[in-house]
Amino acid sequence: MIAHFVNTYVYYPGCSLTTTNRAYDISTRNVVGVLGIEMLDLEDWNCCGATAYMAIREKRSFVLSARNLALAEKAGRDLVTACAGCYLSLHKINKYMAEDPKIRGEIRRALNAGGMDYTGKVRVRHILDVLVNDLGEEGIKQHVVRPFAGLKVAPYYGCQITRPFGDIDDPEFPKIMDNLLRWIGADPIPFSMKTKCCGGMLMITQQEAGLELVGQILSQAKEEGADCISTACPLCQINLEAYQAKASRTIGKDCRIPVLYFTQLVGITLGLEPKDLALRDNLTPSEAVIAARSA
Amino acid sequence: MEAIDAQTLKQTFLHNIYSIPYGEKIKECLQCGTCSASCPTSGRMDYSPREIIAALRAGLLDRVLNSNTVWLCSSCYSCTVRCPAEIKFTDVMYELKRLGNKYGFTSRKSPTAKMARCFVKIIDRYGRTAEGELMARYYLSTNPIRALGQVGFGLRMLLKRRIPLLPHRIKGRNNLKKMISAVSQEVQKP
After folding, report:
1. Exposed e or buried b per residue across B158-181, where buried means at least 16 C-beta atoms within 10 angstroms of its C-beta
2. Which of A55, A224, A226, B165 shows the greatest Cβ crowding within 10 Å of its Cβ?
3. What CATH number did the domain enclosing B82 receive?
4. Which of A 114-173 lie inside 8 A of B, CB atoms?
5. Is residue B71 domain-shared with residue B163, that is, in the same domain?
6. What pTM, to 2 d.p., does this model score?
7. ipTM for the assembly
């Protein structure tokens, strides 16, 4: 079978994927390898700034993101990331620099001070968008060796992939992950909480607020008949997998349900081994999900 | 933190909010309350998003910044995508977080604000985050006793090698420092 080389990319893992969310990084790399997408590592990337830096220093957080865009431009490739937070930070400053000459000038002068520059040539992509819109149904299906049979999945997009710009898909009712799940034989439920916020950093700093939001997402996925939840963001993944017992107590409903990155679900059907998807890193069990493949 | 008189402060707030990308859109608020209804945490806020804009217009923003409000924004952008006047309210909330931090309002003492300041220190030093040090700094700056409740979770993450023992320092960190020092003063005087 001929591998598709639709586009060439540099890959930006982001901080979380090198540490707390290694499984998302490992599964992304291995899935991309099987699907035949060429993806080089971005050399010496730095933190995108995330929501936390931005909340203290605006322009400096723009500079953090812009340095990564400058590195990608130097490599002559579009930038792809799997982290929803990094995707938004990088995409946002890329847009602002394109639209606003004042910001563009200021950020470019800052980059120049450190011996770099960015002229706006890079596109920022999320890996979900690349898989669904570049490879498409055929590009995925031809590699699926053991599709799921009847596995009901709650597609959970979180906030930062489609909002605020809505340029990958609808900001509140996206369907791209639903489509991908269908292509690998899963049965995506029409999940009412698919873009409701998990609380992000509030789970650490103001936990009662985080637990309430996470509890609603988890219990609703169960009530709507899901066997597992599929995520596309490292922070959503941790919030949904690590606090299920506490969330159950907080909202008085059963919140226990397996949570996997969408890349792990895809990888399982591509015939990748559990270690290639770092399934042991997950804090919820995935045996039942693996067992739901066709023979 | 800077000391500043009330009148100058009002002008400074307005000037800074208008200065963020698309900040002047806030003048077009019609007080419909879609933002408040869409916000997943507005029920916990002393002032809902709609009330914040009303307070801004009335020159009472200091009340908002002395309440629990701004750091309850989790940056989900629900308000932003639904606003009929196309106000990027999430970005306004970011500006309010920065103003409260800069001028020493009560909002500065929120645990989420403390976490964000710890995060900035780490990024400025290494160029990337360092989860272990971030959590250590955060619990030391808030409630070290609460860290004990996280020991089990922390160990589980360590055993799964999901928390690194040492931070990664980027090679270009000296040049990165020059870049971030080069941008203008964050909060601008009118």
Report:
1. eebebbbeebeebebbebbebbbe
2. A55
3. 1.10.1060.10
4. 114-116, 159-160, 163-164, 166, 171-172
5. no
6. 0.95
7. 0.94
